[in-house]
Amino acid sequence: MDPLAAVSEELAEIDGQVADIFRALSNGFQKLEKIKDVNRQSRQLEELTDKMRECKRLIKEFDREVKETERRTDANTHKMLNEKKQSMVKELNSYVALKKQHQSNLENNKRVDLFDGPSEGFGEENVLLASSMTNQQLIDRGNHMMNETDQAIDRAKKVVQDTVDVGTETAAALKAQTEQMSRIVNELDSIHFSIKKASKLVKEIGRQVATDKCIMALLFLIVIGVIAIIIVKLVNPNNKDIRDIPGLAPPAMNRRLLWTPN
């Protein structure tokens, strides 16, 4: 039985994943040594770098799991787990060093291909071509190359001019958009002011309407009171409580004189 599995299934699983990555790295570097194309070597190194990055992550997980199991394991088991982790780190560092070596060789090869390879062939070709030409052919060839250079310069000038024109148009468009945004902001300010003014006017109208309603309600109560008094007076004309109200008091009784003629 795997001793790591006896301690923790997570540790055993991580150990298996790390072992798979180490096998893939070994096969990958062996394959890299057989590749001659610089671009393919670069892609292969990128793939190997991704695998090493994943391996580093797994080793960190392994270390965290070891620290979590430290309290429930004895000293010998903990020592064995640390030695296993150190072994993983050591093997990963060896692949990192191998990757740096291949990366350095790859950069040197690219530098040689860029500066040495094309210039040699081009120089030899020009020497052979010039040695087989007459003076007139050389002059014609020089004139032709000068014409091509002038045309290339003209094209470059045209590109620069087009770029300047595009930049000018872009600046004008940005200026127009900026002015438009300023107008929009001013309009929004005006709208906001109008809304505040309208809100204030609505509040004033609301207060005036409320005042009018109170007055109408008071007048209504007065009218109701007057009607009630009239009804009460008609029903009970002798009611003393409303005798003194103008227009509603009962008619005065005929007074008798103390002395009446015979």
UniProtKB/TrEMBL annotation:
Database matches in PANTHER family: NOVEL PLANT SNARE 11, VESICLE TRANSPORT V-SNARE PROTEIN VTI1-RELATED
Main location: membrane
Identification of the protein by name: t-SNARE coiled-coil homology domain-containing protein
GO cellular component terms attached to this protein's record: endoplasmic reticulum membrane; ER to Golgi transport vesicle membrane; Golgi apparatus; late endosome membrane; SNARE complex
Assigned protein family: Belongs to the novel plant SNARE family.
Topology class, membrane: Single-pass type IV membrane protein
Coiled-coil stretches: 38-72
Oxidoreductase recorded as keyword: no
GO molecular function: SNAP receptor activity; SNARE binding
GO BP annotations, alphabetical order: protein transport; vesicle fusion
T-SNARE coiled-coil homology domain: residues covered: 143-205
Pfam families: Sec20 (PF03908)
Keyword Transit peptide among record annotations: no
Subcellular location(s) of the protein: Membrane
Transmembrane segments: 215-235
Keyword annotations: Coiled coil, Membrane, Protein transport, Transmembrane, Transmembrane helix, Transport
